[in-house]
Specification:
This protein is mostly helical. It is built from 14 helices and no strands. Helix content is 72%, strand content 0%. Helix 4 packs antiparallel against helix 5, helix 11 packs antiparallel against helix 12 and helix 13 packs across helix 14.
Length: 297
């Protein structure tokens, strides 16, 4: 059960950073242990009958560790950190679906996404027996349809967020000054303007699907949810970038207020902050400097 337990424990979250740190190490026992863990997880998953996407998810987490190891931290590489895992995750899910379609599992994409939502990739969703009736009703009628129609987006969002957090963790184990300079530039990072276009397209398709009868089709809602969810990840990272820009520039009371918001509701706060900064370019309107030395020096 070790392989499938990967998705029901918190260990899988740190696989990319662990892989990158092990590959960077010059000690052969570290790489040997890494190879053994990789072989155990993959072989156990195959033996226990895990699905194609579950097995590829294990491979992808280890592969993202190798990708993290190869990052050179050149100028502008935050685009690489944000968008590369997002694109790879989308290709992984779509590739698995078409692979199963060719091999004979010819179900609709929506039905296939329903199977994936119920798989061991989503252990928290499978543990709904103890939920109250009201929560179960909310899950079945609201959350589950969104998860199924936007599964590719949710999967890519989660994998990309894992990669970004692991990149920050792995960065702490690097000693190169180039790395430090690059991450000190994170408070000034902005996502591409096309992200806003993707967000508008997603919201527009969902609105059309909801209001216009000729467009009330499952595929319209699916495209809309995927555009919306995929655009939210770079917006989230831009919100984190804005927060890292503001924190060294505000007073103690405002800092405490921001810290409390981030502690209580981090995702909604960062998404709202990222959207506002993407739309209004808030940082260009703020003239005060951070306390202490300039971050870009």
């Amino acid at each position: 059960m070790l392989a499938l337990g990967l998705f029901s424990s918190f260990f899988w979250f740190f696989i990319p950073a662990a892989v990158a740190i092990s590959l960077r190490s010059s000690k052969w026992p570290d790489r040997l242990i890494l190879g053994i863990l990789f072989a155990i997880h993959v072989s156990s998953a195959i033996r226990l009958g895990a699905g194609s996407l579950e097995i590829l998810s294990i491979l992808q987490l280890f592969g993202l560790g190798w990708l993290l190891r190869t990052i050179t931290y050149k100028k502008g590489n935050f685009q690489y950190i944000v968008y590369t895992p997002l694109a790879l995750s989308v290709l992984t899910v779509v590739g698995v679906y078409f692979g199963e379609w060719i091999s004979g599992n010819r179900v609709s994409f929506l039905d296939w996404c329903h199977q994936m939502v119920q798989s061991s990739l989503s252990p928290a969703i499978n543990e709904t027996k103890g939920w109250s009736q009201s929560w179960m009703g909310l899950y079945e009628h609201v959350l589950l349809p969104i998860l199924e129609r936007g599964f590719v987006g949710f999967y890519s969002f989660v994998v990309s967020l894992i990669f970004f957090i692991n990149a920050a963790i792995e960065n702490m184990f690097r000693t190169s000054r180039k790395t430090a300079v690059t991450w000190r530039g994170f408070p000034y990072w902005r996502s591409h303007d096309l992200v806003l276009l993707a967000l508008v397209i997603g919201l527009g398709l969902l609105a059309i699907n909801h209001t216009l009868a000729p467009f009330r089709a499952a595929w319209v809602a699916q495209i809309g949810w995927h555009f919306l969810i995929l655009s939210l990840f770079p917006i989230l990272i831009q919100g984190a970038s804005l927060a890292s820009f503001l924190i060294p520039r505000v007073g103690a009371i405002l800092f405490l207020f921001m810290f409390t918001l981030l502690l209580v509701q981090p995702l909604p706060v960062l998404l709202l902050a990222g959207f506002c900064d993407l739309w209004f370019d808030l940082r260009s309107k703020l003239k005060f400097e951070p306390r202490g030395e300039d971050e870009r020096s």
